[in-house]
Structures are given as C-alpha cells and as structure tokens.
Specification:
The chain is mainly β and 198 residues long. The protein has two helices and nine strands; from the N terminus they run ββββββαβββα. It has a single domain, classed as Nucleoside Triphosphate Pyrophosphohydrolase (Alpha-Beta Complex), CATH 3.90.79.10. Helix content is 11%, strand content 33%.
Length: 198
C-alpha cells in the first residue's frame, strides 16, 4: 500500500493489515442548546453535505486557555473556539496546526504533540440558512507557545476576529460561548498539559 493511499476499515484492524496507524473518533451525540437550533421540516432536502478535516491547538497558561472568536464571516459567528482550522490539500495536520496557530494568534508553536481526535456530526441549518449535513473531524494538539508574547490576529478579515487567554472558569459561560470541541477538551484537559507546566 502506498504511503499516500488511504484505506477505510470497519471493525477490528489486524496489525499487519497495511494500516500504518489507526485513529479512533468518538462522535458527539448531542449538540448544545442554541447551536444550529432550528429544526428541518422532513420534506426539506439537505442542500449541502460537507466533511471537513481541521487541526487545532490547545495552549494553556496557568489557569487560562488560548481561545479565538469566530468572526462575522465565519460560522457560528461570535462563538469561541480553539486556534486552528482546515487542513489544506497535501498539508499534514501537524503543519496545519502550526500555520493556523500563527495566522490566528501571531504565536509560534514551540512544540506540538498530538493528543486526541474529536468529531461532530450535525444535520441542521448551517451557513446561508441552507440545510446542511456537516461532519467535522478535529485533530487536537497540545502546543507550547511563548507565553511572554501577547497574541494578536495576523489574518485580519478572516474567520477569526479576536484572540484571548481566557480563564478556564469562564469558558462556556455567557461571555465565552464555545463549540462542542472546546467542551470536549475541557473534559480531558490533563492530557494537554506539559510535564512541569502549571
């Protein structure tokens, strides 16, 4: 099997099957209240089917986490998420998380470690009020950044309009509504900490 080929397996994967690595994805069964909340009448067809692979950075600083806010050109606007985004064609997720981190925060990843994969599947009203069958696969990295540098949005006018270190106790509250991916990270936060870090 070519190293560039992809094969999909269902069930158990035999170690000598040619699959160089296996990633287990857990599906989020429920969506948070208010997230894509309108219901689709049964007779209304799904007008768009999308699958998106993204790479995201989890950076911690004492009792804070680095978050970005989705701009009015993004979806859902005003919601906070992790720095990151789509993996370009031919780009590795490892390279994508470093690129996206810089574009959205101005910070460089001093180190990046793959921790988890999260996914979400939603059929509901999406962009442009179209009924969408959306599947997002999120590759999650623990990253180290220079905490002495202040983050700032480099790619002005893109899908991120604000970047901020947010107290963990405020994440998901009224001032910082977040995507399900961020809620998932908060439930498994210890896996993103670096040895010797606070």
């Amino acid at each position: 099997m070519s190293r560039y080929a992809t094969r999909f397996f269902t069930g158990w994967v035999v170690v000598c099957s040619g699959a160089s690595s296996v990633i287990v994805c857990l599906t989020l069964e429920a969506k948070p209240e208010g997230f894509l909340s309108r219901t689709r009448p049964e007779e209304t067809p799904v007008t768009r089917r999308t699958q998106r692979l993204g790479a995201y950075a989890v950076a911690l600083r004492d009792s804070r986490i680095l978050l970005t806010r989705i701009s009015p050109v993004g979806f859902p606007a005003g919601t906070w998420t992790l720095p990151g985004g789509g993996v370009d064609h031919g780009e590795s997720p490892h390279d994508a998380v470093r690129r996206e981190l810089h574009e959205e925060t101005g910070l460089a990843a001093l180190d990046a470690r793959l921790v988890d994969v999260h996914d979400v599947h939603v059929v509901d009203v999406g962009r442009d009020d179209a009924y969408e069958d959306y599947h997002g696969v999120h590759v999650l990295y623990a990253v180290r950044v220079d905490v002495a540098q202040e983050p700032h949005v480099v790619d002005v006018g893109g899908s991120t309009d604000v970047v901020r270190w947010v107290e963990l106790s405020e994440v998901g509250g009224p001032d910082y509504p977040v995507l399900p991916m961020v809620e998932h990270v908060l439930r498994t936060l210890d896996g993103y900490r670096w040895a010797g870090a606070a």
